[in-house]
Amino acid sequence: GAGVSQTPSNKVTEKGKYVELRCDPISGHTALYWYRQSLGQGPEFLIYFQGTGAADDSGLPNDRFFAVRPEGSVSTLKIQRTERGDSAVYLCASSLTSVGSYNEQFFGPGTRLTVL
Amino acid sequence: RKEVEQDPGPFNVPEGATVAFNCTYSNSASQSFFWYRQDCRKEPKLLMSVYSSGNEDGRFTAQLNRASQYISLLIRDSKLSDSATYLCVVNSFYNQGGKLIFGQGTELSVKP
Questions:
Q1: Which one of A72, B30, B43, B67 is separated from A4 by 20 to 30 angstroms, measured CA to CA?
Q2: Taking all residues of chain A, what is their mean pLDDT, rounded to a whole number?
């Protein structure tokens, strides 16, 4: 079946602009995660959703970052007033659920964001 | 101090070699442990979970020492296709999926 998909695959924007990154999880997966990976580093947790609600948003770096998942499926990560330091690969992952014993997280290919 | 620390490498080894990666974690409440593999410009993929009793999957052996907060991965008989970055990962909550905490990754390059 289809894996996690993310669009766009690449996004180049100018400092100060607003961007939206989209994640389409594996069908039937109720948990959805966003991570950010800078060059030479491991992925860094941003936020995760169980269903429509954000269960843990402790990784969002500041209030310029916001994510939604209104219908419990597709999620959008929104970044306002982008800064050069926001340049990274934004990874989305999904799992069957986040409740109970650990469920494997499956990652999408990521969106490479470049802020000029 | 980072919550999960790894030697970034790179490790350059010949085909057939045995290579070991180490990782330490700082949060003693961590409950689940994993090794992920990430190929260049690709997404991370789960390689194997790590259990206190140690576990093996073919040429790969993972060990966990909770007392020392130390995780290891051993790769025997390295193949060219093993070249990738290996990420040590912990999950702090036992009965929740929750967030994964990644180390910075150890790069492995297997040469002919």
A1: B30
A2: 94
